[in-house]
Amino acid sequence: MAWPKLRKSGPDARTGDDKPAEVKPASALVQRLARKLGELPAKDALRIQAAEALEKAQQRGGEELHEVCRTFVEALNGLQEALVVDLSPGVFHPEVLDTPGTVLIQINASGRILQLSILPREAAYSSDQFRLPYVLRGAIRWFNQELLDRHLVEEHQIFYCRERGEHHWLYQNPRTRKTGAIDSDYLAECLEQLL
Length: 195
Known about the structure:
Layout: H1 11-15, H2 28-79, E1 86-88, E2 103-109, E3 112-118, E4 134-143, H3 145-149, E5 154-163, E6 166-172, E7 179-181, H4 184-192
Antiparallel strand pairs: 1-2, 2-3, 3-4, 4-5, 5-6, 6-7
Helix pairs in contact: 2-4
């Protein structure tokens, strides 16, 4: 069986000469679609800009939390000689936020542990778990061997929030709903409970 011959497409196939076919005016629907398609590059640019700003805020959040811990550990180590307080990791690398697991920052004072965890990145600003919009969330836990033996670990939720155009870390006690800033004094209060 022979295949049928295909005719050439193009202006000359429709009209039989070299003149282009007459273009009909576009319908209102086609005009509206063309207008919306023309707006896409600007919208895409805004989405990319927002995603980059979110990623930078999350990186800054991880760095700021580690910096609070580092400053706290250095202050403690500078004020006493009998014990060395360890910080792990010693240096924060923002790319760890891209791992699927939880990021841990740990302060160890002779078996008295403060452990700060950051959950995987949020896809956008959220307020599902806290009253202020946040881009990172996690928890702070503190424990020693006595508490572990009794299956007790103290824990507060932590959030990297945006408020009045600025970002900062806040904690929330799930039992009392008390909130406050995560700073050296807060870390000292947590660690002191283990002594």
